[in-house]
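User: Fold this; tokens only.

Assistant: Input:
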Amino acid sequence: MNETGRRGYLSRIFAVRGMAQVVTVAIGLVIIFIVFSLLSENFTSSRNLRNLLRQVAPILIIGIAQSYVLITGNIDLSIGSVVGMSCMISATLMTNGVGQWAAVAVTVACCLAIGVLNGQLVARCGLPPFIATLGTMTIARGIAQIVNNNRNTDSIGEGARLFRNFFYYGEFMGIYSTVWIAVVLWIAFNFVLSRTRTGRHIYAVGSNIDAARMSGVNVSATVTKAYLVSAFCSCVVGFIACATGGVGTMDAGNMYELYAVAASVIGGVSTLGGQGLLLGTVIGASIWSVLQNGLILAGAPVAIRNIAVGIIVVISVLLDIVVRNGKWIRKKSRS
């Protein structure tokens, strides 16, 4: 490929809305990775890198969940509670003699019901997404607490070994099954978002809901689909949490809605809707996990780790607002 062809190819790549942010955060990820590699020799050990991939996986999955909803111009605060609900329902069923895959099917159905409820409250009833999902967040956490009489479950036992291997402990080609699940989900949902009519409708609703409605887009169905994706991904992370410890814990998924927002907005998904790439969500989830892992190896306390992630999230959202409002562009044109 000659120089002119390369320039044309690069121009087409950067013409994709949100790609500039993806490239920027990718550079940031490389810098952070190099810094922690210099601070700790254990950071780049094969064992730590394998574990790091497994730490990235659930954050990526819930990042996909939040990204879908954010692109429609909404937000899902129920993600963490749906994770806990999934963990508790599946574990409670398995500890009471229900087959592991029957328990998975029932749990998926319950979590998808929360997704439908979120979509209908926001799109059809007109509730602000913050209020609607705050309510379902509390409902889902209450369900997580009540299914086993307000206590954590016993061990799901050896009978659920296949479940535990599938969602956490299994390996294929030297990579943990959790990572493969995240990869498959990312490929599937990235295809839907970038190559299908549903994906185009999701971007259209987030960009201009009135124009989308006038163009014939079923706004209610589109928003509900985004919340269904969110609920399904959260459900899968609940299975991972259950498989990890082998028990159902009522506080599983605590703070995960914030981790999901972090992975999304760090990766360039706009909180204003209509913009964002799931490729950026991969990088955002990786930055979050690399920071957590690297700071732990560096001996930083939990408070410092939380402050670091919080600062990055605030800066990411601030930059998004500045760019979307055109303040930087107008200032540059006047100079």
